[in-house]
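[09:14] KT: can someone run the structure on this one? pasting the chain below
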Amino acid sequence: MRSRRRGSLGPRVLPVIAVVRLVCSVFSVCSVFSAADPVCTFVHTRWAARDRRPPVTHCLQHRRSPSLTDRAMGRRRRALYLFFFLNGIAMSSWITRTPDVRDRLGVSTGQMGLVLFGLSVGSMAGILCSGRFVSRFGTRPVTAFGTLCVVVSVVVVGAGSALGSAPLVTAGLGVFGVGVGSGEVAINVDGADVERITGRPVLPTLHGCFSLGTVIGGLAGMAATAAAFPAHWHLLAVAAVTAAIFGYAIGAVPAGTGVRAAAPAPDTTRPAAPQVWKDRRLLMIGAIVLAMALAEGAANDWLPLLMVDGHGLDAAVGSLVFVGFAAAMTLGRFGGTFFLSRHSRATVVRASAVSGAIGLCLVIFSDNAVVAAAAVLFWGLGASLGFPVALSAAGDSGPDETARVGLVATIGYIAFLVGPPTLGFLGDHYGLRPAMVVVLVFVATAVLAAPAAGTRASPHRPSGAGAPVEPAVERQEQRAEG
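[09:31] RB: done, structure tokens below
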């Protein structure tokens, strides 16, 4: 009877599974279905914590019969991908409409830098508060708060554009920055937790979904710009889409991730929390994040205007160039897992910085608009992996992952705080192309700081208490790699 039931269900279930795997492969999440060992690691840690049957025995049974935990991990990973995806859509929708919004507000390039300063201040406020909130409440409420701020801010920016009010647009960008700054730290902490549970790179694909969102949002924004569709109606539609994605994904994020347990008594043998600031390697990783975040943020803030004002392209063509940049970012991040599985983090970061420097040189110094537009692809490929790989290295660099990721992300967001007004000021006096020399210098320093990113992440390292799965085998694999 059992074999008959299996034979009757197979023809119905297998096509469904095939379709689901095909869809997931588009978003580069096929590993959810194929990674048996990471799932068993997850089950191992959870069942060991509950004092159930022996973890090894349960893992053997789990390999034969996938449980609800398998599906929960898959839903969690896809939810994190969706949160970064919707942030990318919202960001690129605003970026592609910046020439229209600037004309609607009637401001100069320097004044536009002050408007963008609201985004920087909001991002810094969100990033500074996010670490404490995640340590106290966990990643789920902070992610929900940040995403809701993004939804509201897009509506406010659209209203400011419709009314021609620069202060309202600045305020909306400030709320947007709070949402992105706080939400992305929480999502990165959650993603780093998934990396430790599964033993597979997650953060590059996670940030790749952000870039994929920027491509889709950029294409929609380019079409809206070419059709002269009002920016405020476009942004209102984007807010509706992001709200729908949020409602679908938030339920899959587990509660309690990132919460720091209160110590029963002061322990003088353990280093204090501020000790992470004295970690030289962590500060070098922060320097990498600072440089690569500036390279990415400069394109996000100024690339359409740079191509319009600096190379004389049409606004719709400038938006198309930004879509090319976002597509290169997407390709680099989705392909990052392939390179990270074969090369060290330091090698990947160094190659990324060199590619970004080449692209920036051509954009800055070439007078040929076609060459400059093509060089944006090198810029995007170079900026794609520096930020997520450095965050992954920070989370893997020592204890108290929330504090470490929060510190490095804070250093990175300094680029978003200082970058827009600085580049706007320099662009107002010297032009946007010469202003990008500052970005080029920072990216060049990332080449020198690349060794701090270290080697590959340790596989199958659990996030909670408990020993890793088969540590002796892992040490042998690490010796073989080294």
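[09:33] KT: thanks! The two ends are 52 Å apart (CA to CA).
[09:34] RB: yep, looked fine to me
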